[in-house]
């Protein structure tokens, strides 16, 4: 289909047609019209609690231009269903909303509109987005070529002794899918966190909190500790992990993008061979 002025470059936000409570913006390379669109890939960048979707979208713009990829940045607003609720998307399911399915609908909407490859995308998230993307990876590894997991405050381990969200024992009952370790092993995985990311006030879950369950804090005290626990858990299950500990960096997602860009560029180069 022909593309309009607002369909190329850094786009406005578009309401998702399947559920207009959520939306997304894009970066579409200006060279797209001169490329074979079927060879273009989709990079998805998921915001954290601060909902800085455009910052992540813009951070991947140069990579999109160099590689002919499209960047999709979802916006899952604060206050869906519950006024002021901050964490709705992080554990994929919230009341009647399935944020994993909403992202899949966004992917379908964008890839259909632009005629690009929808089969195996590159997925990034930082902080609350890091929570979302590693859980999405657990459910849908077949949809991913690579996942970059940035500084999640809480983690879900591959663990058939504990229920979701701490473990995966009841994953099939919760989401209708089972852990597919073979598919997970085929995905390129990066984990990254700032070496100074040591604050715990936002990530320690207490009894009485909405997210509380037994084992909520067992992965460690800080984001550094919890990511190390997730890495060890993945490696125990045969999943190779690239780990980037970023010197001098606290909890600042847009400042952590360079190693993600390098990782994604390497993956895209390999996939184009």
From TrEMBL:
Keyword Cell membrane attached: no
Segments crossing the lipid bilayer: none
Record bears the keyword Magnesium: no
GO molecular function terms attached to this record: hydrolase activity
Entry keywords, A to Z: Hydrolase, Signal
Gene3D superfamilies for the chain: alpha/beta hydrolase
Protein name: Hydrolase
Biological source species: Reyranella soli
């Amino acid at each position: 289909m022909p593309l309009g002025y607002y369909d190329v470059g850094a786009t406005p936000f578009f309401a998702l047609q399947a559920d207009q409570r959520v939306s997304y913006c894009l970066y579409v390379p200006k060279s797209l019209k001169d490329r074979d669109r079927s060879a273009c890939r989709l990079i998805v960048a998921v915001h954290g609690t601060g909902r800085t979707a455009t910052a992540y979208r813009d951070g991947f713009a140069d990579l999109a231009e160099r590689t002919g990829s499209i960047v999709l940045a979802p916006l899952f607003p604060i206050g869906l269903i519950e006024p002021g609720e901050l964490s709705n998307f992080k554990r994929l399911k919230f009341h009647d909303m399935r944020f994993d399915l909403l992202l899949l609908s966004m992917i379908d909407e964008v890839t259909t509109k632009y005629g690009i490859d929808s089969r195996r995308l590159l997925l990034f998230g930082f902080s609350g987005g890091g929570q979302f993307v590693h859980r999405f990876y657990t459910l849908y590894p077949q949809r991913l070529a690579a996942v970059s997991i940035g500084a999640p405050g809480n983690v879900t381990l591959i663990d058939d002794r504990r229920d979701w969200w701490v473990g995966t024992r009841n994953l099939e009952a919760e989401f209708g899918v089972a852990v597919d370790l073979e598919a997970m092993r085929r995905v390129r995985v990066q984990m990254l966190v700032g070496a100074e990311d040591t604050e715990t006030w936002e990530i320690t879950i207490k009894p009485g909190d909405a997210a509380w369950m037994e084992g909520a804090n067992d992965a460690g005290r800080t984001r550094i500790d919890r990511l190390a626990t997730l890495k060890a858990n993945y490696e125990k299950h045969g999943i190779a992990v690239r780990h980037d500990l970023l010197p001098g960096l606290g909890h600042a997602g847009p400042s952590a993008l360079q190693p993600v860009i390098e990782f994604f560029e390497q993956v895209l180069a390999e996939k184009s061979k």
